[in-house]
Design brief:
With about 425 residues, this protein is mostly helical. Helix content is about 75%, strand content about 0%. Among the domains are: about 110 residues, no CATH class; about 190 residues, Tetratricopeptide repeat domain (Serine Threonine Protein Phosphatase 5, Tetratricopeptide repeat, Alpha Horseshoe), CATH 1.25.40. It is elongated, with a radius of gyration of 32 Å.
Length: about 425
């Protein structure tokens, strides 16, 4: 589930900015020297307070050192009234930031950062971090236009904050610039993969949600297809394949193929899915597959073994599965089957349903020779190869699939590349 990126607490922010709340375990002298160094960097080098502003500056400096919020707030009011030069105003912003950190007031922190950044006097080494936190606060306030402006500036200044890219991506997505947000997400995904690490799941989830909201289903499925490469869990497979089921409508062959991939990825979890799968396989004439999928559901716990409806299906289909298995094996052994494309495909389909995918491969290849542009045969050849453990061959076959099974082929290719053997259909029970 997507979790909104949260603004950093004041203490954590102070540690990054090197401001008044900074504490270390260093000896007192070293601590004081380091603190002064960082505060000077934050204030800006070479700033000169005007004569009228100097008394207020002294009060602000002393109050910030003492972490006295009430005195600092009063000194700030005085300083704002007497500030007249850009240097004065930058220093007002700096102490607004200190007051916000001491009092844990994000609006005050954001205001101080804005004053400092807009002055043009921010030291170069602080431009990235100040813009990042300003963008962070704007994001938290749902001011996505400002968040984009600040976070892009932080990025340009070389900020390496881990949250920058996800926050910038989400700002673009929430600001209606979905393609720009997805572009940033893709860059983040590519960078993580290149570094040998798993991309954050938010880089997939948020763009997918944005595309869904915009009714851009194909792009949403592009994102979800990439997601299962890095998160091949039953839940992510289910989310993706369930959408494909909704798109398939009344195409029974397509629905059956989608359910087969759901079974292969262990993402069938509900009784109605097994009921639909068993019904489609029964109608298509694959009793061995009907028996196998029901036993799969019983073994997974999705179907109670006491379920009388599925029990009656098993009772009627098991004898048919036994006799069908013998007939299919006999057909597969006949040379004539290879020369008849229709018979070759039907026999191959039945073999895969019976858990004999390797034997189905030459039959699909024979059928494909006769009809080289048949997308269903091309697709099911890839499935048979994947089930038989021939991953490279399967990926090559799936790459050739066109038409409405192209997306399903892409997903099967991911499953094949994963290396783990998908759940195969169990052989029919022996005759009693």
């Amino acid at each position: 589930m997507f979790t909104r990126f949260r603004s950093m607490p004041a203490t954590a922010m102070a540690a990054v900015l090197g401001c008044a709340l900074m504490t270390t375990a260093a000896p007192a002298a070293a601590q004081k020297k380091e603190k002064q160094k960082k505060e000077e960097a934050a204030k800006g080098k070479g700033l000169t307070a005007s004569k009228a502003f100097a008394p207020a500056l002294k009060k602000m400096t002393d109050a910030a050192a003492a972490k006295d919020a009430a005195t600092l707030e009063a000194a700030l009011t005085e300083g704002q009234a007497s500030a007249s030069t850009p240097d004065d105003k930058y220093l007002v912003g700096f102490y607004q930031l200190q007051l916000g950190i001491i009092g844990k007031q994000q609006p005050m922190q954001a205001q101080g950062l804005d004053v400092m950044l807009e002055s043009g006097l921010t030291p170069a080494e602080n431009v990235g971090v100040y813009n990042f936190y300003s963008g962070n606060f704007a994001y938290g306030a749902k001011n996505y236009a400002k968040a984009i402006q600040r976070l892009e500036a932080a990025k340009a200044a070389g900020s390496t904050e881990a949250a920058l890219a996800p926050m910038l991506m989400d700002s673009y997505l929430n600001g209606g610039q979905i393609d720009k947000g997805w572009e940033i997400a893709q860059a983040g995904i590519a960078a993580s993969r290149a570094a040998g690490t798993k991309p954050s799941e938010e880089l997939f989830v948020r763009p997918a949600q944005a595309f869904q909201k915009a009714n851009r289903t194909n792009e949403m499925l592009d994102v979800l297809t990439m997601r299962v490469q890095d998160y091949p869990t039953p839940a992510t497979w289910r989310n993706t394949l369930y959408i494909l089921l909704q798109q398939a409508g009344g195409d029974k062959e397509m629905n059956l193929d989608i359910l087969r991939l759901m079974r292969a990825t262990n993402s069938m979890t509900q009784r109605p899915e097994y009921l639909e799968y068993a019904g489609l396989a029964t109608e298509a004439g694959f009793p061995g597959e009907v028996v196998a999928v029901i036993k799969h559901g019983q073994n997974s716990g999705a179907i109670p073994k006491t379920d009388t409806h599925f029990g009656s299906i098993l009772e009627s289909q098991t004898p048919r599965a036994n006799s069908d298995a013998a007939a299919v094996a006999a057909d597969a052994a006949k040379p004539a089957t290879l020369t008849n494309p229709k018979a070759a495909r039907a026999t191959a389909d039945a073999l895969v349903g019976n858990g004999e995918a390797a034997k189905a491969i030459p039959l699909y290849q024979a059928a494909l020779t006769a009809s080289p542009t048949d997308p269903v045969v091309q697709y099911r050849l890839g499935v048979a190869q994947a089930l038989a453990g021939q991953s490279d061959a399967a990926v090559a076959s799936f790459a050739k699939v066109q038409g409405n099974r192209q997306r399903l082929a892409q997903l099967w290719a991911i499953r094949a590349k994963a290396g783990a053997a998908p759940a195969a259909a169990s052989a029919p029970a022996p005759a009693t």
